[in-house]
């Protein structure tokens, strides 16, 4: 596959200061992988650089949740109170894992600015979510929510009898050898690319932020990782999961049936109401998004992005996974869309 045009678009996005730096990569169901890194004058990137992947964490956690569903240990449509006895009363007993995974729980989210200011621990955040009351009947409206994902992480922890980060590592990131995907990248500080546009003005502030994220272990958006690691996950979801072993050391993580279930659109009949009252449809799969808007129209594909400019794209029908990581808070989608379109053109 000739990725020359995609590489040139990526290099131009950095050269024109649209993005500070980036790494992108492509893998197919045989495990054949290509990576490309582009550095800017103030942000250097290598193929093995570690970036804050932000809400791409949701795609990782959702895949792990589906492992429990696949094994019959978790019911997507059962009240989460079945697994979290303290999460009951005041309408909470109607909230299911499906509601959290599709952002239709009706629960209140925690403001990012408040989290930055208060830097709460995992336990405190969990207590906040466990005490929350649905403002809307679960399943009645789409409202993007990151805090509610602590209900999923705590369910994983209790079903596995171990802390959530350990359960995630043992079940998913460990078997796939996603060695640089974690909530605490401080062991590899030299490879961590600093975020731009987030108010991290010096090394001390950055260290405080890393310490907070390591302590909070946010399942809705607190992980760091590399493009190669994200492609390991993407490859494991291609060809109905039959690509296990294509990446050295990887194992099958989900059955074909579970992958198909995870990839199906879930919220076509559930409205999203904007602040101005406009009603739209969000094309949400289980923990992932379906392509919409300017993204390539690939009906079998699932994707997730992050506020840091991160993007993971998996297209089982095309046998293709794509990942791009950069380090700009609230980065534009346009250069990523353009690069991905060139990848498809090269694929033929």
**Helix run count:** 11
CATH fold annotation: Beta-lactamase
CATH architecture term: 3-Layer(aba) Sandwich
Strand order in the sheet with the most strands: 2-1-9-8-7
Write the H/E string, N to C. Answer: HEEEHHHHHHHEHHEEEEEH
Beta-strand content bin? 5-15%
The CATH class is: Alpha Beta
Distance between the termini: 9 Å
Mean pLDDT: 92
* Uncertain runs: 243-250
- Derived from helix and strand composition plus strand pairing, the structural class reads alpha+beta
Counting copies of identical and different chains, the oligomeric state is single chain
Largest sheet: 5 strands, antiparallel
> Globular, elongated, flat, extended or rod-shaped: what is the shape?
globular
CATH superfamily: DD-peptidase/beta-lactamase superfamily
How many beta strands in the DSSP annotation?
Answer: 9
Count of the separate structural domains: 1
Helix content: 25-40%
As a whole number of angstroms, the C-alpha radius of gyration is 19 Å
Summarize the structure.
The protein is built from 11 helices and 9 strands.
Characterization of the model:
This protein has 348 residues and is an alpha+beta fold. It has one domain (4-347): DD-peptidase/beta-lactamase superfamily (Beta-lactamase, 3-Layer(aba) Sandwich), CATH 3.40.710. The chain contains eleven helices and nine strands. The protein has helices at 4-15, 56-70, 97-101, 112-118, 122-130, 149-160, 164-173, 203-216, 227-236, 256-263, 334-347, and strands spanning 22-28, 33-38, 51-54, 223-225, 271-273, 279-281, 302-305, 311-315, 320-326. The protein has a five-stranded antiparallel sheet with strand order 2-1-9-8-7, sandwiched between helices. The protein has a two-stranded antiparallel ribbon with strand order 3-4. A hairpin with a 4-residue loop joins strand 1 (22-28) and strand 2 (33-38). Helix 2 (56-70) packs across helix 6 and helix 6 (149-160) packs across helix 7 (164-173). Residues 243-250 have low confidence and may be disordered.
């Amino acid at each position: 596959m000739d990725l020359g045009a995609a590489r040139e678009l990526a290099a131009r996005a950095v050269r024109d200061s649209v993005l500070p730096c980036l790494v992108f990569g492509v893998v197919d169901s045989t495990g054949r992988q290509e990576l490309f890194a582009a550095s800017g004058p103030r942000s250097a990137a290598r193929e093995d650089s570690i970036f804050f992947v932000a809400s791409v964490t949701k795609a990782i956690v959702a895949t792990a949740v589906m492992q429990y569903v696949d094994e019959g240990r978790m019911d997507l449509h059962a009240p989460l109170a079945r697994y979290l006895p303290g999460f009951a009363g005041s309408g909470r007993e109607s909230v299911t894992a499906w509601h959290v995974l599709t952002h239709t729980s009706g629960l209140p989210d925690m403001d990012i600015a408040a989290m930055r200011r208060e830097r709460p621990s995992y336990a405190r955040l969990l207590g906040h979510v466990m005490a929350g009351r649905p403002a809307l009947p679960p399943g009645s409206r789409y409202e993007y929510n990151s805090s509610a994902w602590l209900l999923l992480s705590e369910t994983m922890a209790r079903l596995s009898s171990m802390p959530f980060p350990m359960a995630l590592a043992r079940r998913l990131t460990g078997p796939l050898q996603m060695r640089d995907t974690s909530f605490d990248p401080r062991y590899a500080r030299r490879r961590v690319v600093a975020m731009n546009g987030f108010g991290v003005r010096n090394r001390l502030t950055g260290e405080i932020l890393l310490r907070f994220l390591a302590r909070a272990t946010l399942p809705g958006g607190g992980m760091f990782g590399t493009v190669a690691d994200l492609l390991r996950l993407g490859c494991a979801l291609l060809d109905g999961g039959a690509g296990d072993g294509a990446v050295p050391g990887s194992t099958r993580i989900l059955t074909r049936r579970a992958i198909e279930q995870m990839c199906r659109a879930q919220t076509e009949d559930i409205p999203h109401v904007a602040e101005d009252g406009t009603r739209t449809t969000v094309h949400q799969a289980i923990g992932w998004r379906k392509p919409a808007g300017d993204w390539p129209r690939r009906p079998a594909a699932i994707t997730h992005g992050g506020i840091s400019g991160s993007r993971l794209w998996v297209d089982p029908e095309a046998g293709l996974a794509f990942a791009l990581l950069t380090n700009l808070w609230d980065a534009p989608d346009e250069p990523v869309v353009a690069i991905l379109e060139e990848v498809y053109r090269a694929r033929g």
